[in-house]
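Chapter review: from sequence to fold.
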Amino acid sequence: MTFTVLARHPQSGLLGAATASRSLAVGNAVPAVRAGVGAVASQAWTNRALRGLLLDATDAGADAQAAIDRIAEWDTGAPLRQALLLPARGAGAAHTGTETTPWTGHLVLEDAIVAGNLLAGPGVLEAMRDALAPLSTLDAHAPDAAARFAGVLVGVLAAGEVAGGDVRGRQSAAVLVAGATEADGTVDLRVDDHADPLDDLARLVDLRAADLRGTVTAR
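The token string follows.
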């Protein structure tokens, strides 16, 4: 009962995931990113184990569709699941089970995937897709590039919310960004329970950007 975006920035190697939901602590259960490997999400009737299984399969050399096709092998509850996988390189893939709660669906794009369930309608995903446009002008050389990337992903979620989002309302949100290697700048931020989680998540992203620019006193 969640909407999510996975995206990558080929010029910089940045990979990211952002998610929002009318559920407590969505960031603890849905998204995962592994530097140099891929971004993944498991939602609807969430099976958290699918995240690691999909990333491990990708890391071992499977393409995204082959990894996604193994969900039925790994999980007898596959019809209840929605899972997305965007590798660091190559085409992404997604699975929306036949028993997920409508409106439910996904869009696999060249460098992104948007998906959700219990949404107001397909317009949510269409708005999220259109909000990805700023990634094309992202300055990959900026010291706060990871945070700028995260800001775009939070904007994608905000566009989905304006289009109707989760029909139950809002409660939590999260954004993860990893660079091409573990040494690159990262973002790992969550708002677990808030009246306006996307607004608060955007505030945290701004703070992380300042950290990456070196303008915040070390803690």
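Two observations follow directly from the output. The chain has seven helices and ten strands. The chain has a mean pLDDT of 94.
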